[in-house]
Amino acid sequence: MSATVRLTMAQALVRYLCAQKMRADDINGENTGALLPLFGGVFAIFGHGNVAGVGEALYQHRDQLPTYRAHNEQAMANAAIAYAKAHMRRRMMAVTTSIGPGATNLLTSAALAHVNRLPVLLLPGDIFVSRAPDPVLQQLEDFGDGTVSVNDCFRTVSRYFDRIVKPEQLLVALPRAMHVLTDSALCGPVTLALPQDVQTAAYDWPETFFAERIHSFRRMPPAPDDITAAANALREAKRPVLIAGGGTLYAKASDVVRQFAETHGVPVAESQAGKGALAWNHPLQLGPAGVSGSTAANGLLAKADLVLAVGTRLQDFTTGSNALYSHARVITLNVNGYDALKGGGVQILADARLGLEALSAALGPWRTADTWRERAEQTANQWRETVDGITGRRELPAGMLPYDGEIIGAVQRSATDSARDDIVVCAAGTLPAELEKLWRTETPGGYHMEYGYSCMGYEIAGGMGVKMAKPDREVIVMLGDGSYLMLNAEIATSVMLGLKLIIIVLDNRGFGCINRLQQACGGEPFNNMLDDCLHGPDGAPFIDFAAHARAMGAEAEYVDSIAGLEQALIRARAARRTYLIAIDTDHRRTTEEGGCWWEVAVPEVSSSKSVQQARREYDMAKQQQRPAAATGKTHGK
To answer: Quick one: what percent of the chain has pLDDT higher than 70?
Structure first.
């Protein structure tokens, strides 16, 4: 009879997490054979639903599995997700909360991880299975279903959901959870709802359940027929463009993207998630595609007769709402079958690295015509010159506020080595478009943008997670005043944990991005900029972001010019703890170069002349969209 050990459900859960390992060479590429914990730690805010069960278990294993306390449940989950993204999904974290609002505060983060295909283990407390104290504090009561709790909300935003109503159910649930968290196609959030009485219930566990488990990150090879069909389609193409998505980074395929481009003369554009897959200064690097894309990428995509979409879920910002290259054939190479279906063309269901290698081998010596390659190199170089002009140092006229592009230039100039080692973190507002166009990185992971869910408030918490994953890199968080006001408490956590961030708050006094979108759709400025909102007799507030950050333990200062920002960045880089710099910016100015149409529905009926005109323009633009793509698998023509 096999040996057993008597543990509570929570103790067994934590012990199991401690036993999960991965090979260090899966991250750094060095074949040392060293093992690392799969879980870098657990973020926890304790309450009556998890402090006695999970809390006691975490304390017993605090030396093996560190527990980090944060100030907001959504923020700590965002930090955990950013940690996994910075590790290219090879390492991850768990998050535990109490029941009630502690649990539901995780819902936004669960959706964020689901959209972005990022792993995080969510462990919300749950109600009593025994129902002895029913209803317990913070319990939601469903009048028609006694089994429902607020954690059922996680079902739609989790890749795998389970409620553990008996301790021994972990024997099945935990291996399933690990499979989802480490599988490249299924990867996403896992939620295990933990009723508080079950957390503390004991069971005789087989010792073998806690044996060390080394997780291998398997690569899915392509089917030969898929490669043949894609190679035939490429050979017929005269003007192909490759779009590199986040899957190229997660597959560690950056070198293969470069080799494919050079061998076959195919220019490369990038999505938000794929930015950094090819160094910014490579001759065939066109820059970003789509709504916040470069003139080079969008110009060539508009002329392309074939698009090879690698590791991208083809979000509307990348495709220009399916209007940018609706005339072109599409080859999708993706490890996820759901994403591979998009585009309605030839599909390669495979890991990005293995798929590109196989496709390159099948193509042999085939190359695009010199005229297409030379055109790509010329337009790519012109775009780099454009970026130089936007981000270069120059004096602004007296009284003119800087805008995001000029601030991005100052940040990059402040680096001692062309910002090669900096990691910029952002998520929402105007900055994602400006950073995608203008930020330059030579290293995969140097650009950390959460733009799948575009979650305001992700930035500071996400920066903290990145710093936990990459403690030797300078992590620069750039965000607007709107995002800062939504979720900023993890400044205090970063100070408490010694995770130094450089935070730059671009204060345009409101939601400048949506204010411009509102007007572009024919609307009047309303309820976005602080001055356009209802307010009391004292008017809209002027917020001292530097004073606020200092109150949470950070170093901070306000600057009133680009020159002042450059000097502040010197101090920030030399600082030992989180350093915030606030600067006023112009909400009206943006980078005009690049971009393309984005579908935002405009009212069909309105008394406003400007809305009527915007609707006419909207109807005309929709005529360029690709029809709803067929989902059947296609080969050849």
So the answer is: 97
CA 624/CA 520 separation, integer angstroms: 19
Q: Provide CATH code, domain 4-215.
A: 3.40.50.970
Domain 224-383 class, CATH top level: alpha beta
Lowest mean per-residue pLDDT among 294-303, 378-387, 626-635 = 626-635
Q: How far is the C-alpha of 608 from the C-alpha of 610, rounded, in Å?
A: 5
- Calculate the CA 402 to chain-centre distance: 27
Cα 34 to Cα 32: distance, rounded to the nearest angstrom? 5
631 pLDDT band, cuts 50/70/90, is very low
Q: In the chain, where does the domain assigned CATH 3.40.50.1220 lie?
A: 224-383
pLDDT digits (tens, 9 = 90+) for 103-152: 999 999 999 999 999 999 999 999 999 999 999 999 999 999 999 999 99
Question: What DSSP designation does 446 have?
Answer: S
Under a CB-based contact definition with an 8 Å cutoff, are residues 219 and 248 in contact? Answer: no
Distance CA 258, CA 117 (A): 24
| CB-CB contact of 480 with 429 (8 Å) | yes
Query: If you average pLDDT over residues 519-523, what whole number do you get?
Result: 94
CB 583 within 8 A of CB 565: yes
Candidates 3.40.50.2300, 2.40.50.1020, 2.60.40.1580, 3.40.50.970; correct CATH number of 392-584?
3.40.50.970
Residue 353 CA to residue 336 CA, distance in Å, equals 14
Amino acid at 635: H
Q: How far apart are CA 215 and CA 19, in angstroms?
A: 11
Pinpoint the residues of the chain covered by CATH 3.40.50.970: 4-215, 392-584
In the predicted model, what is the mean pLDDT of the chain? 95
User: Is pLDDT at 637 greater than 50 in this prediction?
Assistant: no
Cis peptide upstream of residue 37 (ω within 30 degrees of 0): no
| pTM for the model | 0.96
